[in-house]
Structure formats: C-alpha cells, structure tokens
Amino acid sequence: LRVEVDSTRKCLQDGDGELNDVECEHVNQVLIEPLNRLRTALIVVDFQNDFVAGSMAIKNGSAAEDPAEALVPLNRLLVECPFTLIVYTMDWHPYNHISFWEHCRNSDRKLCAEDRVRKLKPFDVVRFEAPDVEQATAMRKIKVNFSTELEDVLRSEAIDAIFVCGLAYDVCVAATANDGVELGFLTALIADC
C-alpha cells in the first residue's frame, strides 16, 4: 500500500478544515479504496478456557486482563468485519514439555556447549541443545529459521494485513503482532478484545 502523501497535501491545502467533493474523491482514491482492497486476516490468539477460568486464568495476572470483558467486542468484530481469513490459535504443550517443572531436568535434554563450560549458579538461565521451545507467538516458533504453519497460510491466502487480538496481550498477542510486522504484514493490534 502506497499513499500519495504529497498529492494529498496539495489537494487538502485550501485550509478550510473541511473536505469538499474534490478533496473527498482524492482521499477515496489514494487512501480508502486501496485500504478496502487489502486482504485481511483476524488472528485471535489464545482465547481458550484455560486462560479464561482454568488453570492459567489471566484475570489475576500481571496484565490484569478480564477475558469476559473481551467477549462482546470480539463477537461484534467477528460479525461486522469482513475479514478474508479468521484464525484462532491455542496455547498448548505436550505433557513432557520443558515448561513444566517436572520435566525441566530430564536427562534427555543436553545443555548447550556454552552453558556446559561456564560455572552455573542457582537461578541461572540456561539453554539446551535442540530444546522443546517455548512458543509465545503464533507466527514463529523461535527467532531463527523456523516458522509455524500460520505464516504459510497467510502467504498462500495473499494476506496483506493482519489484525491481532486475544488473551495475554503482554506475551502471546504482542509477540504475534511483532512477528507480523517483522514478516512484512501491515499489522494492527485490537485493544478491546
């Protein structure tokens, strides 16, 4: 999307503070019509029972989000906005995932070479060779060469812009939106759902 800023400024320079018919037509041609042609995706991140009232409810978390307050705006968005694609993500880990304390010291996980040679103290952060990664984004697993299926789906549908909403804005929603920007999608974060 390329907006002709200079020609729009010239068109709106009569300085009266109101759009006349010529100015409206110009704004429609250079801004509104290209925006309306965008292929858009709504990505609803981690709106799932565990985060609403289950074992990982976020209402009392650091972001103090109340999932119940997001339901009405989310439902209205789903009904009123003609997205090209709607995607729902779900936070999920296999029973033996490294994020569960019972499995963080399993012998099948080998420390990376750098951490094997340094003198470790309690509470040091360590990395593993080929770990079961913690994924906070729907777009990419980790910040290297791996991508999730979602990026491929968005590209195959020729999506230009993504709108991201969901639960845990401070973690998964933010990470997904940031990755959307890094991957070249026009990206908007929807604040109320």
From TrEMBL:
<comment type="similarity">
    <text>Belongs to the isochorismatase family.</text>
</comment>
<keyword id="KW-0479">Metal-binding</keyword>
<keyword id="KW-0662">Pyridine nucleotide biosynthesis</keyword>
<dbReference type="GO" id="GO:0008936">
    <property type="term" value="F:nicotinamidase activity"/>
</dbReference>
<keyword id="KW-0378">Hydrolase</keyword>
<comment type="pathway">
    <text>Cofactor biosynthesis; nicotinate biosynthesis; nicotinate from nicotinamide: step 1/1.</text>
</comment>
<dbReference type="GO" id="GO:0046872">
    <property type="term" value="F:metal ion binding"/>
</dbReference>
<dbReference type="InterPro" id="IPR036380">
    <property type="entry name" value="Isochorismatase-like_sf"/>
</dbReference>
<dbReference type="InterPro" id="IPR052347">
    <property type="entry name" value="Isochorismatase_Nicotinamidase"/>
</dbReference>
<dbReference type="InterPro" id="IPR000868">
    <property type="entry name" value="Isochorismatase-like_dom"/>
</dbReference>
<dbReference type="Pfam" id="PF00857">
    <property type="entry name" value="Isochorismatase"/>
</dbReference>
<dbReference type="GO" id="GO:0019363">
    <property type="term" value="P:pyridine nucleotide biosynthetic process"/>
</dbReference>
<feature type="domain" description="Isochorismatase-like">
    <location>
        <begin position="40"/>
        <end position="193"/>
    </location>
</feature>
<protein>
    <recommendedName>
        <fullName>nicotinamidase</fullName>
        <ecNumber>3.5.1.19</ecNumber>
    </recommendedName>
</protein>
